[in-house]
Amino acid sequence: MRQIYELIVAMTPAGVIGHNGTIPWHIPEDLEYFKKMTIGGIIVMGRKTFESLPRILPNRIHVVITRTPKIIHPSTTNETSPVYYSTLENLDTLIHQISFRIKRQIFIIGGRDLFMELMSRCSKFHITMVYQNIPGDVSVPELLDYIRDKKNGMEDEVEDERRVSSKSEIEYQMFRIRRKTPIYITRC
Fold this sequence. Notes:
Radius of gyration: 16 Å
CATH class: Alpha Beta
CATH architecture: 3-Layer(aba) Sandwich
Distance between the termini: 15 Å
Order of helices and strands: EEHEHEEHEHEEHEEE
CATH topology: Dihydrofolate Reductase, subunit A
Number of helices: 5
Strand content: 25-35%
Number of domains: 1
Helix content: 10-25%
Number of strands: 11
Largest sheet: 9 strands, mixed
């Protein structure tokens, strides 16, 4: 089975994804969707995103992209949620090593630099659009431009109706967009 990268993100129409090292909104429905989608899969993130997590996320394989990986092997702190460290250049090789026997969905979860580096290699995009003017110090408006650009061969797979969060009263909408012709992870 050939594998693809999927990108999952919540953002404002201006591209805001973070503020002071956190997500600047609280939408429980989006967090539940993130959990449902990524559980049992591989989540790929930059070092700052990893350090911002409240804890190791259960039942997911964590891959942390860093320029200077200190740990090559998985941590022994949690068998069901191992953590691997890799450079961006070695990501495909590591993914193949991890998923040699069991194929898993692979999600790029942030941050900005990783989104910028990998969006052109992703075949599916799970986007929660947060319709509120929320200030932030991390944004990736280029991601929206990339998806909207017809040259990149994207098509809407599913578009949910706009909703209001039951807890925070923030309006949001979930989009799933896929590339008409998938880009498969190369074998190394």
